[in-house]
Design a protein that fits this description.
The protein is of the alpha+beta class and 568 residues long. The protein is built from 16 helices and 6 strands. Helices cover 53% and strands 8% of the residues. The strands form 2 sheets. It has a 4-stranded antiparallel β-sheet, covered by helices on one side. A two-stranded antiparallel sheet has the order 3-4.
């Protein structure tokens, strides 16, 4: 006998959890660089589109197709009898779509930690593997009647089953990939790579927070009895409480540590609190939810700093800490704070031990299986894009998309010291030298010291290397601006959008302006040429001008004196 109320409740939950894909897409896109936005949006679309038929063909059967201790069954296209697994009054297809969106959530977590440097084809393959067997097998242990559920392991809506599995896969993937180019300086210290759109990231967080009420609340899969009605209200309160408290704690922590409240970390803290409360939202009190929020709010910044600075695993969006660390912590804390059976409520240590065992076993399963998948990909089709593709951005190199923001250009600010010289092009010895033409009459500059302005036009992806080279030879100041322009080639085609060819007659570049008085002009010019040279069209131009005078606004000093830094 089907229940309309229960069915509508489950379908509402499925719709809300599906909408979390939009939240994840916005978070990942906003917290990373503009040159990879299209790639990230494509990945968030495809992990759901790949996961849906994959879970229908393989995953659902492995998860719910039998009562075995380790694995369910093999039931392509979900044609078996699932009466024993279905919630009361909920038809099979309603339950199928509800579980499908949970599976897609686990898969999409991984893309954030591996963003900006992963081959798209490799992403599609490992996303398939997560949906096909990695998530379903451990999900069977926890929710499908497997050995962990038989022991009494409690993970109400998926702190471990969904989020920690995704977080562990994210950690392994980011470690195997290695950090993004420019993430660490020559001394191994991490450098911030700021996302291009904080507003987009914040909107993603709010969407996820809103959808989490469906993620946790609708996991009751019933709304008929009075007990369930009370439980659903408690779940909503606990979900909201943990997220809010975690954000407050992280804000205070970063304020004290960094002297300023960290916006990005505080936004991530809301997600950390949501992930942590997901396991025990139905069995802890609001006080317990607040304690879990405090733990998540402290764990998040400590964990992010640990992976970033100590382990040196580059995680652009903090997925490892948010989903992996806080998912595991929330599940374990349920063993302490559950009103019925928790250690703090006189329940003894057996339940806590089972929670710890479930976390360890699930993490081990996910880590071993995803490592095998990633290593196979790495040694066959490859897991990471080339350095040049990474610097140009995955939008143009993987999808032929000039920019996800039509009409705008963005800097590529992390560049290695050199890229391969184009084969078959003009050698640097035969390249046309830069010649300085001295006017017949030169005005004596103020202060009697000759000053020269050097304008360097270069490719965006070369800017960081140029900047470091200039600082290395003693340049103390420079100005850089984004410009659009073209040479004799009048630009070039920049791929396709919606099947139509995109023609670009003006290409994005960086113009770097430097005024020198002490350093020889030839030193600056030759250093710039060495850094920028590839032998291909578009390496750039260098313009040299005489400077008549310079005035320092603060002191009124002129000429040579105005160019000297006075830090006192």
């Amino acid at each position: 006998m089907y229940s309309a109320v229960n069915t509508i409740w489950v379908l509402l939950g499925a719709a809300l959890v599906f909408f979390m894909q939009a939240g994840f897409a916005m978070c990942e896109a906003g917290f990373t660089r503009a040159k990879n936005t299209g790639n990230i949006l494509m990945k968030n679309l495809m992990d759901f589109c790949i996961g849906t038929p994959t879970y229908w063909l393989l995953g659902f059967g492995l998860m719910f197709g039998g009562a075995g201790a380790v694995i369910g069954g093999f039931d392509p296209m979900v044609r078996g009898d699932y009466a024993a697994a279905l919630p009361a009054g909920v038809p099979l297809f309603a339950f199928l779509i509800f579980q499908t969106v949970f599976c897609a959530t686990s898969a999409t977590i991984v893309s954030g930690s591996m963003a900006e440097r992963t081959k798209f084809i490799s992403y599609c393959i490992y996303s398939f593997c997560i949906s096909a067997f990695i998530y379903p097998v451990s999900g069977h242990w926890i929710w499908g009647g497997g050995w962990l559920s038989q022991l009494g392991f409690h993970d109400f809506a998926g702190s471990t089953a969904v989020h920690m599995v995704g977080g562990v896969c994210a950690c392994i993937g980011a470690a195997i990939l290695g950090p993004r180019i420019g993430k660490y300086d020559r001394d191994g210290k991490p450098r911030a790579i700021i996302g291009h759109n904080l507003s987009l990231g914040a909107l993603g967080v709010f969407i996820l927070w809103f959808c989490w009420f469906g993620f946790n609340g609708c996991s009751t899969v019933s709304m008929e009895s009075d007990d369930v009605l009370v439980s659903a209200g408690l779940i909503f309160v606990n979900t909201n409480m943990a997220a809010a408290v975690a954000s407050c704690v992280t804000m205070v922590y970063t304020w004290l540590r960094c002297k300023k409240p960290d916006v990005g970390m505080t936004l991530n803290a809301a997600l950390a609190g949501l992930v942590a409360i997901t396991a025990g939202c139905d069995v802890v009190s609001p006080t317990g939810a607040a304690i879990i929020g405090i733990a998540a709010g402290l764990l998040l910044p400590i964990s992010v700093s640990f992976f970033d600075a100590v382990v040196k695993i580059d995680d652009p969006v903090g997925a490892i800490s948010v989903h992996g660390v806080c998912g595991a912590a929330g599940t374990i804390l349920t063993g302490l704070l559950a009103v019925d059976g928790g250690v703090f409520y006189g329940g003894g240590f057996r339940f806590l031990a089972i929670q710890c065992l479930g976390v360890l076993a699930t993490a081990l399963w996910a880590a071993v299986m995803i490592t095998i998948v990633f290593q196979i990909l790495k040694h066959t089709i490859g897991l990471r894009v080339s350095a040049e593709e990474e610097l140009k951005g995955l939008d143009i190199t993987e999808h032929g998309l000039p920019s996800a923001y039509g009409g705008f250009a963005f800097t590529y600010d992390d560049t290695p010291d050199g890229l391969p010289v184009a084969a078959g092009e003009v050698s640097v010895q035969k390249a046309v030298p830069v010649e300085v033409v001295t006017p017949l009459a030169v005005t004596v500059p103020a202060g009697g010291v000759k000053m020269t302005k050097i304008d360097i036009l270069c490719k965006m992806e070369r800017f960081d290397a140029l900047k470091r080279a200039m600082f290395d030879i003693g340049i103390t100041g420079m100005t850089a601006i984004n410009v659009m322009g073209c040479g004799e080639q009048r630009g070039k085609s920049e791929g396709y959008f919606r099947g139509a060819k995109v023609e670009a007659t003006m290409l994005p570049s960086i113009q770097v302006s430097i005024v020198v008085s002490k350093l020889p002009v030839d030193l600056v010019v030759n250093t710039a040429r060495k850094v920028l040279y590839t032998g291909s069209i578009g390496d750039g131009k260098i313009f040299i001008y005489n400077v008549e005078n310079v005035v320092k606004v603060r002191t009124g000093e002129q000429g040579y004196d105005a160019l000297q830094d006075d830090v006192n």
